[in-house]
Write a sequence for this structure.
């Protein structure tokens, strides 16, 4: 997968088409938008926006060998926001017509009584810059129900055929098409048509009374006609079954502080928890992050360069524009161990006197944007992954994880293994039961002593939660050696 | 009930009647539908000034349709009648695409809660009591002020927030069930940041109640938040080894949650719970007794019927460590040859899953000081983080924060450690239950003292 830094100025026409979708559906003509945005004009207002959203999601799930459930869900509404200094007013409506748009913006405005430097309103009309990271035609975003059913069945058959100890297979496919329009106080209109799919397989294997789980998922922002890739689906199903079977032999995980080798890909949630959240602009503006005020300081070993990149084509965490109409970008967070930058939305960038980075994201029209990650990863290094594992004297080799969490202020973070092995003198001895690893965000990367050449992004399954809002994200990591991490086992 | 709520309920009944009759007209054999509205208003302050005001009125409809033994679920926030019709048509089409499942379907008619009027569970105010915008701001400001002025080491706050919500939830099905509940909630919270030298720690405190008049004072919430944050400064790491752990009520509650999730009938039919086959036997220490009470006045989980419209009852689900049975909705009950226990939980976009209303842990006789004395040496845990709990395998491993306890006395703060064990060893290792019940959640729980868990630190 290549990393693209260039902007494309294209899609002006399709951008207009998408704006036309909201005009046709909700009467959001340029005149109406202009008059609503006029309510957001004034000497006290720094930023204002309207966020139109129309999302259709389709889900299907299989268990016990049959497709038991199918669903279709529509979510639509408009969020109105006004920012004055450090103050934010927000309101939403799901009844979308010109009268309700005015009322909603007027409600959001009530807060903006004083403060702020003010802006001059520009008439609505200019289309914002955007990338072209995923397909833009609505026609490419249809996948017939019987095709979906066939894919779920294929995953079920493959997982069951993997081993006779596979007892339960649960498969789901979810697709989503989100159409958005943002209208800003500076007159800029931005639109985006965001496809997203996720295919998931969970396996329960049983041997006598020993039950274990294995899980694998993949997805991204691709044309839905690309989803029926049978080889990909079979590989995913075998991977889920393999994990469950491996775990049948798991023994108690050791406890205490020890060296840990993390495998490539999804173990990148280490970066997401240990440094990513702590580098989001809002916490740093308020001085509540363990990384506050530390730009230019050494926070990682010189082997570590960590980036957040929202511009990688078709990735789950990528966006053509963020939810404030800013094109996403590639932001260097840590360069050879030195802290370089924060992730910003418009509000926090403005208050901190920094550049916007295209990280202003929101779960939906019903939520207020915040600085959020996109795809967060560490650049590959020089070490051969085999040598990294070979040099582990005594510790854990962790290749798959469930979720993680961080306390931004103290910097303490956790992530929990779902496939890990006990290693002595470079040799894998046995799989270990699920354990939580705990460390300190500002310290853990200083203990990275080897970085592999096998950087890979995860398969497209991450969902990040912050302040009650969920957004899709990606992570990536090469194989790395962390000299010290606390392993929460029972032995 | 406020006039506004009365109007919303009438609207909801119209919408439910409309989509249910459309489902029938378009070919569904059965259907059940849910209509939910919420009116949320939150004001947050930081550094003595208003920072964020959020006003959200939201509503949505979800319908599950059956064609014989096949089902599909659709939901929407677009309540235009034509759009609703179109969506119900799509649901009926989708239901033709899923496989027949002989255990699916609406609850058996004799299980439905058809008694009217439904009991008043004291979940909603009449709106006359609700605080003005000005008062909300004042409460949040006083709360933050109390937090900031508590100690010179309180460097800042992440702000104080006053939130209120008013929600209605109505359900109907094609077999004559129609019912609804309304709920109000008022919450005040603050997060304090304590700083000393290189050590920076945060903690928070909150209260939430269905009635505004019952809310704790802003001063006591602010003071408690900062007291907790200060105590956390300059933590050490514990030594790796086995230790007694005292979970405070806010965290003990999560343990009960894990046990309840392992008791789900859905996990049972999937062979996805470590409790499978252990009905009627001991799954926890005799110190633990759990009662589900759907009728608890003002309870956060109170409900006069479940997520399928099924009758609910107050009952002991775990008696002195003995598992009385699993928790079922109609589907998992039919799958496993049981009767529904009224534990269906329904959300707009999904068919029912299993969950509980209010679960009450029978308190013990010991207050916090007595429990600490009983523990002797160990760790008092006041925060847990991470997702390292697997109710299929029964493995438990989470990040924690707390305090070292020696000879029953609280010593300094501890951080960056994990506690681990199996859920079995955890529940059978319960050696004490406190009398210090926290009422802030649908799981009504005091402190819980456990022995035999593994602490991983230095």
């Amino acid at each position: 997968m290549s990393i693209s830094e260039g902007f494309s100025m294209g899609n002006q026409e399709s951008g207009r088409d998408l704006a036309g979708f909201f005009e046709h559906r909700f009467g959001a003509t340029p005149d109406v938008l202009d008059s609503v945005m006029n309510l957001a004009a004034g000497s006290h207002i720094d930023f204002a926006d309207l966020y139109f959203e129309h999302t259709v999601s389709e889900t299907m799930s299989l268990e016990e060998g049959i497709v038991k459930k199918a669903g279709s869900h529509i979510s639509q509404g408009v969020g109105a926001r006004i920012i004055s200094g450090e103050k934010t007013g927000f309101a939403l409506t799901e009844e979308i017509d010109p009268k309700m748009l005015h009322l909603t913006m007027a409600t959001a405005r009530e807060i903006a009584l004083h403060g702020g430097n003010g802006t001059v309103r520009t008439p609505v009309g200019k289309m914002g810059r955007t990338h072209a990271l995923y397909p833009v035609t609505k026609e490419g975003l249809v996948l017939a129900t019987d095709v979906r059913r066939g894919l779920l069945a294929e995953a079920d058959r493959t997982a069951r055929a993997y081993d006779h100890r596979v007892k339960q297979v649960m498969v789901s496919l979810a697709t989503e098409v989100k159409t958005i329009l943002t209208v800003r106080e500076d007159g800029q209109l931005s639109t985006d048509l965001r496809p997203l799919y996720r295919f998931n397989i969970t396996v329960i294997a049983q041997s006598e009374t020993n039950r274990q789980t294995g899980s694998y998922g993949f997805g991204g922002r691709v044309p839905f006609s690309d989803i029926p890739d049978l080889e990909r689906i079979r590989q995913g199903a075998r991977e889920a079954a393999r994990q469950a079977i491996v775990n049948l032999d798991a023994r108690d995980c050791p406890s205490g502080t020890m060296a840990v080798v993390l495998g490539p890909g999804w173990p990148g949630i280490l970066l997401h928890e240990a440094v990513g959240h702590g580098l989001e602009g809002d916490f740093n503006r308020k001085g509540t992050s363990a990384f506050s005020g530390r730009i230019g300081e050494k926070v990682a070993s010189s082997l570590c360069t960590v980036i957040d990149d929202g511009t990688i084509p078709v990735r789950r965490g990528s966006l053509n524009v963020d939810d404030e109409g800013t094109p996403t970008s590639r932001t260097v967070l840590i360069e050879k161990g030195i802290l370089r930058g924060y992730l910003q939305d418009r509000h926090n960038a403005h208050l901190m006197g920094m550049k916007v980075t295209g990280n202003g994201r929101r779960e939906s029209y019903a939520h207020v944007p915040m600085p959020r990650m996109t795809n967060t990863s560490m650049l590959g290094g020089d070490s051969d992954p085999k040598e990294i594992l070979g040099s582990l004297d005594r510790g854990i080799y962790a290749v798959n994880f469930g979720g993680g969490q961080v306390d931004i202020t103290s910097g303490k973070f956790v992530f929990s293994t779902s496939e890990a092995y006990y290693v002595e003198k470079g040799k894998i001895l046995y799989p270990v039961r699920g354990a939580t690893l705990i460390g300190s965000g500002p310290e853990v990367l200083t203990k990275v002593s080897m970085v592999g050449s096998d950087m890979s992004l995860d398969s497209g399954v991450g969902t990040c939660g912050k302040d009650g809002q969920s957004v899709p994200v990606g992570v990536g990591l090469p194989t790395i050696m962390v000299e010290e991490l606390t392993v929460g086992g029972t032995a | 009930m406020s006039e506004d709520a009365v109007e919303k309920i009438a609207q909801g009944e119209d919408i439910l009647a409309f989509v249910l009759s459309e489902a029938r007209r378009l070919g569904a054999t059965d259907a059940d539908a849910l209509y939910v509205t919420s009116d949320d208003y939150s004001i947050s302050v930081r550094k003595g000034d208003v920072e964020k005001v959020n006003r959200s009125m939201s509503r949505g409809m979800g319908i599950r349709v059956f064609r014989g033994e096949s089902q599909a679920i659709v939901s929407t926030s677009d309540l235009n009648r034509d759009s609703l019709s179109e969506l119900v048509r799509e649901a009926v089409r989708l239901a033709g695409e899923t496989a027949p499942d002989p255990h699916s379907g609406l609850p058996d008619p004799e299980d439905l809660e058809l008694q009217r009027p439904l009991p008043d569970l004291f979940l909603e105010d009449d709106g006359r009591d609700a605080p003005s915008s000005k008062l909300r701001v004042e409460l949040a400001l006083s709360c933050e002020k109390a937090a900031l002025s508590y100690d010179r080491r309180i460097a800042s706050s992440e702000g104080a927030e006053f939130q209120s919500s008013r929600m209605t939830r109505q359900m109907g099905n094609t077999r004559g069930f129609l019912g609804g509940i309304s709920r109000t909630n008022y919450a005040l919270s603050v997060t304090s940041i304590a700083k000393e030298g290189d050590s920076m720690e945060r903690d928070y405190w909150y209260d939430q109640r269905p009635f505004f008049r019952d809310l704790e004072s802003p001063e006591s919430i602010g003071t408690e938040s900062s007291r907790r944050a200060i105590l956390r400064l300059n933590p050490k790491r514990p030594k790796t080894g086995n230790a007694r752990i005292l979970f405070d009520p806010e965290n003990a509650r999560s343990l009960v949650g894990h046990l309840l999730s392992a008791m789900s009938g859905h996990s049972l039919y999937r062979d996805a719970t470590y409790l499978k086959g252990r009905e009627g036997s001991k799954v926890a220490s005799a110190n633990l007794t759990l009662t589900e009470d759907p009728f608890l006045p003002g309870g956060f989980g109170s409900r006069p019927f479940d997520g399928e419209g099924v009758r609910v009852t107050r009952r002991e689900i775990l008696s002195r460590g003995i598992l009385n049975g699993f928790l079922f909705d109609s589907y998992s009950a039919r799958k496993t040859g049981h009767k529904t226990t009224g534990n269906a939980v329904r959300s707009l976009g999904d068919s029912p899953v299993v969950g509980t209303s209010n679960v009450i842990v029978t308190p013990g006789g010991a207050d916090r000081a007595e429990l600490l004395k009983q523990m002797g040496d160990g760790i008092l845990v006041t925060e847990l983080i991470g997702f390292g709990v697997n109710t299929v395998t029964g493995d438990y491993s989470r990040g924690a924060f707390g305090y070292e306890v020696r000879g029953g006395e609280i010593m300094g703060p501890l951080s960056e450690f994990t506690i681990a064990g199996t859920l079995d060893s955890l529940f059978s290792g319960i050696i004490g239950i406190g009398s210090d019940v926290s009422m802030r959640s649908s799981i009504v729980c005091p402190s819980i003292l456990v022995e035999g868990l593994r602490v991983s630190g230095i």
